[in-house]
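Dear Dr. V.,

Thank you for agreeing to look over these. As mentioned in my earlier message, I'm a first-year student in the group and I'm still getting used to reading structure tokens, so any feedback on how I've presented them would be very welcome. I ran two proteins. I've put each sequence directly above its structure. The first is here:
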Amino acid sequence: MRKEYEGRLDEIPCIFNLMEPLAGTVDAVKELAQYFDVYILSTAQWKNISAWSDKAAWVQKYFGDSKDSPFYKRLIEKRRKINISKVAGKLRAHKIKKAYVTLVSL
């Protein structure tokens, strides 16, 4: 399958369900969430129709789906790539402190 999707791994069906978080990131995010409002900002390939639900399932798997989860109702999924600094500027306008953590990497 890897050869079939060479150069476009994020189009592999259900790929996001198969990923594991980078070492230490889950604990780091949970610690950050004690001091900051944390969000996940993500996009998905147009051709990967399962990506949206797979990403939500991934967040719930590693961070839980209860109101105690640091990302409960804080997963922002956009259709197109956006400038993160513009989003961060809007968050700052609402007095939300920012912290960026990469959870997974292709």
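The second protein is here, in the same arrangement:
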Amino acid sequence: MLSSSRMEDFQALSAGYLFKVKERGRKSKVYKSYQLTGLRLAEFLEDDGHKSLYIKLAKEYPAEKLLGLAKRIADNHNIKNKGAYFMSVFFDKKDVANINNQQ
């Protein structure tokens, strides 16, 4: 059995290790250009909770079109939920058809 001082040392080390593991997990590891595009979309739209969705969109659609739309939306300060607005504009049937034709 560990003495109380050793137990405290162990707990302090464990807490430090867990903190480092959490910090390491928060850092993005980007291997493909579409991953960076998706992360930039999430940043422009202030929607970190949906990073994986934006990465998926960036994999399927041209980065220039996605980023252009996201920048226009990000510049409009009257929009409260930029991510939701982006998705509604992006998935408007007319816009998706135009994007697909320009690939």
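From my reading of the second output: Residues 31-101 form one domain. The radius of gyration is 21 Å. Does that match how you would interpret it?

Kind regards,
E.
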